[in-house]
Amino acid sequence: MSAKLIDGKKISEFFRAEYKLRVDRLVANGTRPGLAVIIVGSDPASQVYVRNKARACEAIGMHSEVHALPGEISQSGLTAFVDSLNANAAIHGILVQLPLPEHIDDRAVIEAIAPGKDVDGFHYANMGALVIDESRFPPCTPYGVMKMLEYEGIDIEGKHVVIVGRSNIVGKPQAMLMLKAGATVTVCHSKTRDLARFTRDADILVAAVGKARMIGGDMIKPGAVVIDVGINRLADGKLAGDVDFESAVKVASAITPVPGGVGPMTITMLLGNTLRAAEHVAGIVASKKETMLA
Ligand code: NDP
User: Fold this and answer.
1) CB of 192 closer than 6 A to ligand 1?
2) Model pLDDT for residues 70-122, shown as the tens digit of each residue
3) How far apart are the CA of 162 and the centre of ligand 1, in A?
4) What is the mean pLDDT of the segment spanning 232-254?
């Protein structure tokens, strides 16, 4: 068997085209959705991510601002800057690129973002809302996974979803979204004993660990859907997921590649969250079809 490839680039293009129509409608109503991205210091990987986010905004007609702040900025200086964006009516979404320098308390900075502009969905208010099923801004990576499955027509209700990884940005919110969708959810992590026992029972397996190719085909149930969130840089400079693609593709029924799988969906969902923030401010209610799309 050779699994169907779930093409994150193609699915992203579909969503972005839909978003562009909604951006055009907002602009015609006098509101251009705006995203502000703050980057602190000079981490090269973060600079690439930030540039990609800004380009993606502009490509669908959104306003974007990148604020590159010096690595030596103080905690209070950074939160004051976030506050100025909270008060800026041209900005509907604020994203602080992580990681921040050692001397800055990431959590305090995230809590400084107005919950209505927290398009990453990491503020306590939005995380709490996610737990009780009402989040306006589900965190972008796990939300992107849900939208990929929806696009592919893969049923979640009643399925056993096994998530490897319990981080605040991927594993935990992924578990909440899967629960909401009616899955039976198992979350594994570094203390899990006999990981393969769980992964082999998954109808849908989500790998979000950060260890290249650690999940082999022998750890996957034949016919399972495999979503590989991991992005790992190999010694030769190439990217690899957490799943050993070569062996997994022979066992799974559908699988996301790395790169070109979950990665593009993360930025797409950031656009969707920013769009929704702007629609909320403008008092525009998206149609049911549109809401399903974003
Ligand atoms: P974290 O390092 O925050 O979390 C990793 C998780 O994996 C932890 O819960 C950890 O367990 C668990 N883990 C580590 N080793 C093992 C093991 N041997 N067996 C089982 N579980 C293990 O990573 P993130 O969640 O931030 O990211 C995970 C991966 O996803 C990374 O490769 C990252 O680059 C990628 N990523 C991709 C995105 C995208 O857009 N596609 C976006 C965000 C992340 P414990 O909690 O016990 O330490």
Assistant:
1) yes
2) 999 999 999 999 999 999 999 999 999 999 999 999 999 999 999 999 999 99
3) 14
4) 97
Burial of 180 (0-12, 13-18, 19+ CB in 10 A): middle
Query: What are the Cα distances from residue 4, in Å, to 224, 239, 256, 266?
Result: 11, 20, 9, 21
Distance 55 CA to ligand 1 centre (A): 27
Q: What is the pLDDT of residue 7?
A: 98
Q: Give this prediction's pTM.
A: 0.96
One DSSP character per residue, 216-257 reads -GGGS-TT-EEEE---EE-TTS-EE-SB-HHHHTTT-SEE--
Dist CA 215 CA 196 (whole Å): 8
Encoded tokens for 288:
């049911």
Q: How far is Cα 256 from Cα 170, in angstroms, rounded to an integer?
A: 16
Please answer whether residues 62 and 34 qualify as being in contact, where contact means their C-beta atoms are separated by less than 8 angstroms: yes
Q: Domain spans of the chain?
A: 29-115, 140-262
End-to-end CA distance of the chain, in Å? 33
Helical (H) or strand (E) element with 1: none
The fold of 29-115 is: Rossmann fold (3.40.50)
Task: Dump pLDDT digits (tens) for 35-73.
Answer: 999 999 988 888 888 999 999 999 999 999 999 999 999
From the candidate CATH numbers 3.40.50.12160, 3.30.420.40, 3.40.50.720, 3.40.50.2000, the one assigned to the domain spanning 140-262: 3.40.50.720
Read off the pLDDT of residues 175-230 as tens digits, 9 standing for 90 and up: 999 999 999 999 999 999 999 999 999 999 999 999 999 999 999 999 999 999 99
- Our mutation pick for probing the ligand 1 site, out of 97, 168, 189, counting the most ligand atoms within 8 A of Cβ, is 189
